[in-house]
Amino acid sequence: MTVEIGKIRNVGVVGHGGVGKTSLVEAMLFAAGAVTRLGKVDDGTTTTDFDPDEIKRKISINTSVAYCDWKGHHVNLVDTPGYGDFIADARAGLRVVEAAVVVVDAVAGVQVQTEKVWKFASEYELPRAVVVNRLDRERADFFRTLDSLTRRLKGRLVPVHLPVGEEHGFSGYVNLVTMKATTFADGKPKEGEIPADLTERVKEYREKLVEAAAETDDDLLAKYLEEGSLGEPEMLTALHAGIVGGKIVPVLAACATKGVGAAALLDLIVDSFPSPAERGEAAGTDLKAKQAGTRAADARAPVAALVFKTLSDPHVGKLSLFRVYSGTLRPDSNVINVSRGGAKERMGHVSWLQGKTQKTVDALGPGEIGVVPKLKDTQTGDTLSDEAQPFELPRITFPEPAINFAIQPKTRGDEDKISNALARLAEEDPTVHYHFDPETKQLLVSGVGNMHVEMVVERMKRKYNVDVLLLPPRIPYKETVKGRAEGQGKYKKQTGGRGQYGDTWLRVEPMQRGGGFEFVDDIFGGSVPRNFIPSVEKGVRDCMKRGILAGYPIVDLKVTLYDGSYHDVDSSDMAFQIAASMGLQKVFMEAHPILLEPIMNVEVTCPSENAGDVIGDLNSRRGRIAGMEPAGETAVVRAQAPMAEMLTYEPALRSMTGGRGGYSVEFSHYEEVPAFMADKVVKEAKGEKEKAEKH
């Protein structure tokens, strides 16, 4: 039997890295009796951090799902990563829930990724609650954190809890709705009266809460103004309406590792967060009618489900985590993947997920979150739909990768294994991109940040037994000339029997930037026979591919063959190819050769107060600032900078902006490399060539 839609609560748990999201999910599972002991992140025993990389680093890297039953409701908890390199997963997790719990640290307050996940939640118009966690730490301060929340996040944030005790003495909270204190001794809750030293503060904050609740409804406001207070049932109804409508953001107190606040948070989730039915119909594209449409959250409607995460396990194979928006998904049912041109997929057994443990169920109805193994063509962000009534849900948008590394196998012959492993990892994580760069002959892997790419390499080794080295990518320089020159290339080889003879006179001159290559045949009187002219051109082209100055391809060059000589017997195609190549090498070096480098368009988003530092830093990277636009508290800086200077940009931007900056780069054009830099590049290229020749 599927779960009744009104009894489902889907909640994303989000926040900055290291604030205790995974511990809070664990505490809720324990409070609801879904797990029999409270797992710890430090011991690697939590339900939702089960990946070996997560256990080793003690951070969440993937979005994972767990569930529990509370007061007759089925609660799906989506635990998301908080570190910047993996934050795209949090966005995907929030796409499939009806509400968000934003966790903040009681010492640090609002941090960089707190603001990011808050933006994601606003984008999806999700009701949310804030949990001030780790209140038992040194220097933890609920009221200072509350101040940082109201200053930096948009919304009406109202405490529904006040802490009892502080720092190591934190022992529980006062519930401002029920006006009761709950304290914990040895992990067991005890309800009692409000401590005397808190009465004044409780009164002040209770007033604020009642006021916020009353303002959600005109009749309630009239009653409140008349009577000066509201009863508990009215408060709960008003809070539910205020939270669902996004007019109120409740703030709760917690210490997840001691289980404090978990039950109260579950109460709030069940009482005040919306069910999938309350969020209404799912918008998307009706592919039959070829227009925008909606799907009702109804078990009898045609199926529409969104895959929001792919996990690939070398033993189990591929697992697709999905959310059903309409219809009922049963094991062995046939659906189509409308995002992949209607590819047919057969559902295996469908299950609920408790971390990595699957619990097989008979069916999954609207609003439910589940997992299915071994779908052939389905990837993250795809819609699975009924074949007769195809419907596509909006795709999840993932950030573009910002940083590239080259990878090479530690052992020869692992090239095939590498691309196979990368294909599997890119399926799992849509922010991993990879491609072979024909110009630099390197396999490039792109990710969101340094740590992200390092994790890809670790996973390749652990999951697919492929060992690789990470190198900074080579810059695809190009070579050309600034001046004109002409001269002879002659190849003459006499051995016993037939010799080799080819003689060419070449003129080289520059073409405009982006002009490519032009070969001009300017031979009169047959000094080079017609049939050898294509060989001369081939010799020139081959030499241009290999490069002359530093081994980079030559571009924007006009080469004219204007004279030469031949031998009746000894001349051959090969001899003219070699002669042309020798001629070009000599003449090119006399025509003022230069190096060209790729220039990138750079767009940096950063807090307004850091814009000056960002501009100064880009100038120091030979960047040209094209403009700056303030956008509220953030600023967007646009510039052009050489690719070579942008390789180390990510860590520099992170330290300049305290991790709050982001950037994107794309290729713009080629420009001449300054002489002092060009000398260095040429020297390095020669060194590499000599090293290669020794080996």
Give the C-alpha Rg: 33 Å
In CATH, the homologous superfamily of the largest domain goes by the name P-loop containing nucleotide triphosphate hydrolases
Number of domains: 5
CATH architecture assignment name of the largest domain: 3-Layer(aba) Sandwich
Helix content: 25-40%
Highest-level CATH class of the largest domain: Alpha Beta
Got a strand count? 35
Q: Which shape, going by the Cα principal axes?
A: elongated
Largest sheet: 7 strands, mixed
Kindly report the average pLDDT value. Answer: 87
Q: Please mark out the parts with pLDDT under 50 across 5 or more consecutive residues, or reply none.
A: none
The name of the CATH topology of the largest domain is Rossmann fold
Which structural class fits the helix and strand makeup? alpha+beta
Side-by-side strand order of the widest sheet = 2-3-1-4-5-11-6
What is the helix tally? 17
Taking the alpha carbons of the first and last residues, their distance comes to: 68 Å
In percent terms, what proportion of residues is strand? Answer: 25-35%
